[in-house]
Specification:
single chain; 225 residues
Length: 225
């Protein structure tokens, strides 16, 4: 009986350590390191005291029909503040390493910035972003993409109830939240040469709005400019 009680006490102690603040559990994710090197300067006429840079680090998943593509880490930076009393933004940089497509015969996907962003959140969405996806494989030409710089994919991201907003730190201000776009429309591939039909069939393209989801679990850190 004493051995049983001692074992139970040890188990409870271990569980308590896992739940203590600052003790990492298997379910928690470490806060990433943030890079502010690509923060753009405020535009001419800006009120410098209102401007800050925001560095995003996300883990993304793209689901096309019944195919799930683990996108891995996506990094994004932009600056925001006021110009002549009005809210303004300047985009900095988007970085994404090629992510291998499971059962894609060695193919990978890399997201690129499509030339438009709006991160002023409102009651209907957290932001909007234009992007396109570069498909890479030794047998595919370099210009093989889903969407293009001239005709990018338009993603409207909304809060994901599965990953609620969380304040990680006040100094420096760091937050975590989840976003999801469940209305993203994906066209056929472009510039994929003779293997275009193979790439389309492999990814299930085109895929209409309502059949795809683009999810991200995002950490954001803020830095005054």
């Amino acid at each position: 009986m004493r051995r049983l009680l001692a074992a139970a006490a040890a188990a409870l102690s271990a569980a308590a350590l896992v739940l203590l603040p600052g003790h990492a559990s298997a379910a928690s994710s470490p806060v990433p390191e943030f890079d502010f090197s690509a923060c753009p300067a405020p535009p001419a006429g800006a009120d410098p005291s209102t401007w800050r840079c925001e560095a995003f680090v996300s883990q993304g998943v793209l689901t096309v029909g019944d195919r799930e593509i683990q996108l891995g880490e996506i990094r994004l930076t932009f600056s925001e503040g006021k110009v002549d009393g009005k809210f303004a933004q300047v985009f900095g940089e988007m970085r994404h390493a090629p992510a291998r497509i499971q059962d894609g015969f060695g193919a990978s996907m890399q997201l690129e910035y499509g030339g438009y962003s709006d991160f002023l959140s409102n009651d209907e969405r957290r932001g909007e972003l234009d992007l396109y996806a570069v498909l890479r494989h030794p047998l595919l030409p370099k210009g093989c993409t889903i969407g293009t710089p001239d005709a990018p994919l338009h993603s409207v991201i909304k809060d994901d109830p599965a990953v609620p907003f969380e304040m990680i730190s006040q100094n420096p201000k760091t937050v975590k939240f989840g976003v999801v776009d469940s209305q993203l429309s994906l066209p056929r591939t472009t510039g994929c040469g003779p293997l275009a039909r193979v790439a389309d069939r492999l990814l299930g393209l085109p895929s209409a709005s309502g059949r795809n989801t683009f999810k991200q679990v995002t950490y954001v850190q803020f830095k005054p400019l």
